């Protein structure tokens, strides 16, 4: 469960992908590493969202779901690293993966009737909004606040709400397992 929370928290940071942030893009090596790691984290978090949404417990069905996504993400990372570092393509791929992940979490919240479903719905809706703000790259307002700044500002409360959901979900699942054991 902690791994799920960690990957989704990193996915919030990686969802704001494709900008010209000089901190991460000063050399070709760091730029490649930045784009590759964001695609890898988003791909992994998409796998976790699908597994949780479909409630797959059988190992064979988990592998059947994860293998194509893992193959796509690996191929995409290899394309970026060894053929062409296409920032526009990487931004499109990361945006689609982020939107799919947020929609899957919203679907999971509606289907399962989880006690903390409102938190996850809020995170999903605000996450999609944040990704669209980043993708459309809103010009600076008042000379200071642009789409990237708004996206980063949104990710702060979203991370807190997501972690509170992870904590509550972990406590709920642990108590359910403990009830079964007794």
UniProtKB/TrEMBL annotation:
Annotated signal peptide: 1-20
Full protein name: Post-GPI attachment to proteins factor 3
GO molecular function per UniProt: hydrolase activity, acting on ester bonds
Compartment list: Golgi apparatus membrane
Record InterPro entries: Per1-like
Pfam families the UniProt entry points to: Per1 (PF04080)
Annotated PANTHER family: PER1-RELATED (PTHR13148), POST-GPI ATTACHMENT TO PROTEINS FACTOR 3 (PTHR13148:SF1)
Keyword Ribosomal protein belongs to the record: no
Species annotation: Eleusine coracana subsp. coracana
Organism superkingdom: Eukaryota
One GO biological process term: GPI anchor biosynthetic process
């Amino acid at each position: 469960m902690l791994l799920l929370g960690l990957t989704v928290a990193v996915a919030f940071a990686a969802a704001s992908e494709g900008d010209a942030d000089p901190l991460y893009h000063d050399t070709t090596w760091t730029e490649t590493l930045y784009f590759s790691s964001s695609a890898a984290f988003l791909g992994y978090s998409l796998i976790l969202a699908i597994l949780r949404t479909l409630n797959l417990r059988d190992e064979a069905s988990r592998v059947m779901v994860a293998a194509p996504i893992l193959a796509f993400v690996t191929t995409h990372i290899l394309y970026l690293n060894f053929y062409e570092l296409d920032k526009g393509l990487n931004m499109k791929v990361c945006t689609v993966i982020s939107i799919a992940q947020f929609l899957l979490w919203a679907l999971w919240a509606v289907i399962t009737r989880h006690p903390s479903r409102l938190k996850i719905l809020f995170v999903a809706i605000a996450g999609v909004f944040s990704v669209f703000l980043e993708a459309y790259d809103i010009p600076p307002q008042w000379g200071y606040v642009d789409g990237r700044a708004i996206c980063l500002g949104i990710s702060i409360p979203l991370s807190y709400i997501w972690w509170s959901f992870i904590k509550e979900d972990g406590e709920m699942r642990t108590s359910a397992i403990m009830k079964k054991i007794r």
